[in-house]
Amino acid sequence: MAADNPRQISVALPIALDRGFSYAIPVAWPMVPVAGTRVLVPFGTRVLVGIVRPSEATATPGELKEVLDVVDEDGPALPPPLVHLCEWMSDYYVAPIGEIYRLALPGLLTHADARHVCVTEAGQRACAGSGPLLGGIWLEPRAHLLLERVAATGPTGIDVAKLARQRPAIASVWTLLASLEIQGLVACSWEDSGTSERTETFVRRTEYLRNGPTDEQALKTKLGRSKQRRSLLDYLESQRSDSGDGWVSLAELRGPFPRVRELVTPLVEAQLVTTREQTKTVDPFAAAIAVRSMPQHPTQDQAAAIAALQQPLREGRFVSALLHGITGSGKTEVYLQLIELARKLGKGAIVLVPEIALTPQLADRFRGRFGEQVAVLHSGLTSRQRLDAWQQIRSGTRSIVIGARSAIFAPVPALGVIVVDEEHDTSFKQEDGVRYHARDLALVRGRDENAVVVLGSATPSLETYELARRERHLSLNLRSRPTPRPLPQVEVVPLSVHRPDPDSLMTGILRQAIRDTVTAREQVIVFLNRRGFTTTLLCEACGSFQQCPDCSAPSMTYHLSRNRLLCHLCGHIEATPERCGTCGGSTLTHGGVGTERVEIAIERELEGVRVLRLDRDAARGRRLLETLDRFRRHDADVLVGTQMLSKGHDFPGVTLVGILQGDHGLAQPDPRAAERTFQLLTQVAGRAGRGDRPGRVIVQAYAVHHPAIEFAAHHDFAGFAERELAVRGQLGNPPAGHLALVRVHGPDPERVEERISRVAAFLRPGLLQLGEGEGVELRGPAPSPMLRINRRVRWQLLLRSRQRGPLRWVLRHLRSQLGSEGRGGSETVALVDVDPQVLS
Questions:
Q1: Which residue blocks in 371-460 are alpha helix, DSSP H?
Q2: SS (H, E, C) 654-693
Q3: CB-based burial, 414-445: b 16+ in 10 Å, e otherwise
Q4: For the packed helices 804-814 and 749-769, what is the interaxial angle rounded to 10 degrees?
Q5: What pLDDT, in 10s, does the model give residues 421-453?
Q6: Using alpha carbons only, what angle is made at residue 458 by residues 457 and 462, rounded to the nearest 5 degrees?
Q7: Phi and psi angles of residue 400, each rounded to the nearest 5 degrees, phi first
Q8: Is the pTM of this model over 0.70?
Q9: Which of 344, 199, 221, 353 has the alpha carbon at shortest distance from 276?
Q10: Is the dihedral of CA 768, 774, 778, 784 positive or negative?
């Protein structure tokens, strides 16, 4: 707070503007709220919930509005370590501070309309009478109307969100409400009204506009340009086809469609969707009965790793460690025994996983070991469930948290251990909004709280591996599996010699191997990192692809189960055309194979073989867990899937893994293409032979001599890393250097190009100021490899530096140039992605 006036505070608000806002503390308040406390403040015509920052206020007292209320009466919502983490993020990732604080809290704690309002006795008297109110204070007509609406709800009151939506609308509802509360006419609380809900809303696709020849155009008219509404409708259509009754809960839809309530309303009004209330389903992670487990006797490598990590935990000092273990080597048991000690010491733990819904076994193992101490955070939780979990974690009732990247913000008291499982996985990097990397935040938070941070992987990122080589991380290795079976044998099949079937993409070698495996009553995983039926629809007359009208991708993907063309970049959906959109030709040929086509081809070619599919189309929500459970119970012989198969699954019955196109990702315009290919091949191959029977892996590829494939075939991470690090070193790419991607996007190509040119011109003088040896290289401006997505053109600059310090100086210098500029069709948005994982 400002030294000349301690009764001013800086507040972070949940808006995209990149600054804090200064407010005055009312004179009557005895204390100034501390950093991390939620406060209610006026902002224009709205009232917002903000977070008090540790930085100083900048405005003079005469210019300041006063804080309306302090939300947190029993101490700040965010403890000091999380406040520091948020402030560090804003500086490092050059991101708006209010957006970052919003990440750190459950949604119900960051919106002013999450409150509940009831009329007081004084308010009831005011509504019943006429004339002066409360000592001669008159209510203006809008305030009186608002008070009457609150009083009409009776003693139970109403959520502020519902009150604000009532019609006819009342201007400045939140300001008026604050005034009524100050006068004692209403009482607002922060207790959500849904604490004891026993039902939840389910939705289902209706028969309206489902199958008629003119339905497609009618749908476009009703839905407008909303791709999210169309995608939701299409998803409900698939649920109706695949499940018995087609009803889906809003909780399940909240993962793929975070704004599902907003999306459903117009669909219901258009009679395309119907709703009903059903008995609330229980969170599958909380409902499952976890089998009680005891600590296993560790292998020699496991024992050494546990001992090395327990010592700093006992001493209460920060240490970061790379737990580099081959697939199936028992990394989870190391985590469990380390966290067991943390519990005995009165400390908590956070376990980050790439995607919690894909690793239910991991959650079950933790619950089996630690019982009700475990809180599992995942996208299917309702807002109330998420708030309940947050409160239980903050109070220490549940001291162990398992979740995806956002779980790094869990308010665990006395944090002792942070685990980042599969730390190499790209899903730990958020690619929209605040572009943070959860692995790096884990290291910062662990340092601030003197916790032990464990980064576990069979294929660690080269950045983590290099830091371990430099002894910045403790290096711990698990070289063997607890089971007697070694790593699976890998056979590479050159597609230039053994031609694959055009439908299944299987060579004769792989087809026979699948037959033999199924005959032996063992299971098979078939991997192809492309979903859908076919990836292109080609006109034989003019040679053009059926492209997305809003993106520059070469073609949309055809999905047979939906009979739709779908753009995987922007979500655009179209009915399958009968004629070419370019020339009107009637001969359209399917090209490129996806998992849907492979699934059908295997069922046709291998009679009697039971096949399941695991990709974003076939397995979402409850269907995902059902698919995993069915395959684990051996209700199917073959599981066909995308990279979802690489997420740490443990299928003891799998003895064969077939990789249809092992070199598929090598052509990507990205410096990490070879690393990702190696990681993906190694992780998928590691699903074989995890039980008591040996495993076998068949990799089909054209580029069989590419280092990523050759080293993966020999399970040789060290050899691959040494070669790839040498290449990166020559080019100055991470970890030899540091990158930042500056991108401008907008609907108008000329304005986007003009703004990116201005940003580059702004940067160049600053780059020239850097001394010898501290240079920051500027590449561009240039069109992004994927020039247009969802009608927005994209241009970019790439900043590269051998040292992090100069690059951070440049990015701080750049901060004033970021954000939105213009409106409507002339709007452009400039943003920066620090440590980008994708350059396209």
A1: 383-395, 438-448
A2: EEEEEECCCCHHHHCCCCCHHHHHHHHHHHHHCCCCCCCC
A3: ebbbbbbbbbbbebbbbeeebbbbbbbbbbbb
A4: 130
A5: 999 999 999 988 899 999 999 999 999 999 999
A6: 75
A7: -120, 125
A8: yes
A9: 199
A10: negative
